[in-house]
Specification:
By secondary structure, the chain is α/β, with parallel strands linked by helices. Helices cover about 45% and strands about 15% of the residues.
Length: about 140
């Protein structure tokens, strides 16, 4: 399998990347976690749908917005941990004394409506391990 990397930092670059993906008939896309991509979530999902490219995203909001699937950290859990850290600092713990925390909870979300639109069948085993399935 060949891995192609498309970089995009502006709206025209995002459009060109999807045009290249379609022209090259790339069978799938993984959208990296990036602030730009989060702010352009609806645009990315719409372009993936328009060009019929199955895409996987890093945040559940993409799948909730019509993307095929997402796998990434559980932001609610991360925000809860931020609250715990904040509470410890407010009680006097020095931030330098707090351990570095990394996410430990990840979630898989699958949008079956989008899968049907793309003509894809998601295997039952994959659906069984999903944290959420959008019908």
């Amino acid at each position: 399998m060949q891995l192609d990397i498309f970089n995009a930092g502006t709206d025209p670059e995002i459009d060109r990347a999807f045009e290249n993906i379609a022209q090259r008939r790339i069978p799938g896309l993984v959208v990296a976690a990036d602030t730009l991509f989060v702010t352009h979530r609806d645009r990315l999902v719409a372009l993936a749908t328009r060009y019929a490219v199955p895409a996987m995203y890093s945040l559940r909001e993409f799948a909730a917005s019509g993307g095929l699937m997402s796998y990434g950290i559980d932001l609610r859990d991360t925000y809860r941990n931020v609250g715990v850290y904040t509470g410890r600092i407010l009680k006097g713990t020095k931030p330098a004394d707090l351990p570095v925390m990394q996410p430990t909870k990840f979630e898989l979300m699958i949008n079956l409506k989008t899968a049907r639109t793309l003509g894809l069948t998601i295997p039952p085993g994959v659906l069984a391990i999903a944290d959420e399935v959008i019908e």
